[in-house]
Amino acid sequence: MTQDWIPVGALGDAFAPDNNTLPPVADLSGKEICLHFENGWIIRHHFLSEDRLTWEVLRGEANPGLDTDNYVATCPRPGIYLVDFVKHCEAATSVSLVLDLENGVFIAVIGTLPDREEASLSMLERIDRKLELTGVRSSFLRGTLDRDFSPAAPLPQQTRDLIGKRIEYRYNRQENYEHIYLNDRSYSWHCLEGSERGLCDTDTCHYYKIGNGLYLFVWREKIVPTLGLICIDLHAMKTTGKILGYEQHDFRSIRNFGVGAFARIVGSIAHHGTESQA
């Protein structure tokens, strides 16, 4: 049986009905939060309403200035928020912030999709040029909230806690996937039911521990350029997150949509290898 690799826009349509995404919250509306990054940046975020924010670079590589974007905030646990928005001033770029208000720390994920030229490179060309197999890029930046950065702060750390686990995720009645977390940089996904049924692959991924049983998991797909990001709560057995990709294979517009699933640990396997460095 031949199965089509659908664009991310079609995946978003399939995930939308009767989905298990956490509802957006308005808890941050009216608040102003200043992010002090580990690398020296300072960016102030003013949450104007439940879905609109301004962000201002006070210190950093970018030119100082003010910009406004739409955002979505969900709350995976009390006091912890996942804030996600697309930067309209940059091509195919999103920002995802995990804000831990109780501990006064955060981690930011900046993701960028490849353009048509880069995405068209074959796997062999990428290997010859010593490039990653995926053209999707991500940066991970940590820091403190509303206070000068301190390395002693309880920052999110890279983790191996998920490695070896096989977890099934139910996104809605039709869409069901399983993940197998293989090692520090790779995981395998397999669509059990739904629009990509039968498709599977092994892709690049990243793991950070946010709290006890709460993890930030990010993956970057190489066949259809896709950035996925979810907070996995192994206490509530629930996820919240987003998927970013191109609406169609023509690279003209992007789709950035929320996802959420009920999780079920299917099993675990023994794993070996060196530990990640934070």
Features:
278 residues; ten-stranded antiparallel sheet; 3 helices; 19 strands; 6% helix; disordered C terminus
Q: Would you mind describing this structure in some detail?
A:
By secondary structure, the protein is mostly beta strands. The chain is built from three helices and 19 strands. The longest helix has 8 residues, at 8-15. It is globular, with a radius of gyration of 18 Å. Mean pLDDT is 95; it is low at 274-278. InterPro entries: Calycin, MoaF_C, MoaF_N. This is Molybdenum cofactor biosynthesis protein F.
Summarize this structure briefly.
The chain is built from 3 helices and 19 strands. It has helices spanning 8-15, 116-119, 123-128; strands at residues 32-37, 42-47, 52-59, 65-70, 72-77, 80-86, 93-100, 105-112, 137-145, 157-158, 165-170, 176-181, 186-193, 200-211, 214-221, 226-233, 238-246, 254-259, 262-268.
